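2024-03-11 09:14:02 INFO worker-7 job=invfold-0412 stage=load source=structure_tokens
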């Protein structure tokens, strides 16, 4: 097991010299928690989340429209368009799952 760095530990205040993890640097301090213990979303945070969701859905719709335009202009075949759409959907779902797991792990720390 790796030893913690000097920054991650500090001397305990009891004077015995025991090293304890520095928990203050791990826990975010800018989140307010109501009685239930769940962090309350900041209105600016909700606005940022809405902008992010709009950007992701807009980029997905734009890429689907590009594939459809290429299909209608007969630049690509139906099978190629279907393959592109399935791959695009897979990428967005896969990255969404990765982001959801990242956010979940962030709340555990």
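2024-03-11 09:14:09 INFO worker-7 stage=emit residues=109
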């Amino acid at each position: 097991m790796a030893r913690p760095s000097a920054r991650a530990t500090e001397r305990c205040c009891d004077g015995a010299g025991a090293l304890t993890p520095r928990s203050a640097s791990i826990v975010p301090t800018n989140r307010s928690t109501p009685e239930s213990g769940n962090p309350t979303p900041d209105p600016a945070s909700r606005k940022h989340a809405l902008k992010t969701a709009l950007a992701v859905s807009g980029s997905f719709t734009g890429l689907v429209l590009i594939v459809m335009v290429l299909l209608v202009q007969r630049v690509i075949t139906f099978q190629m368009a279907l393959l592109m759409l399935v791959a695009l959907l897979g990428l967005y779902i896969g990255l969404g799952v990765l982001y959801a797991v990242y956010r979940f792990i962030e709340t555990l720390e």
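2024-03-11 09:14:09 INFO worker-7 stage=report msg="Residues 80 and 86 are 10 Å apart (CA to CA)."
2024-03-11 09:14:10 INFO worker-7 job finished
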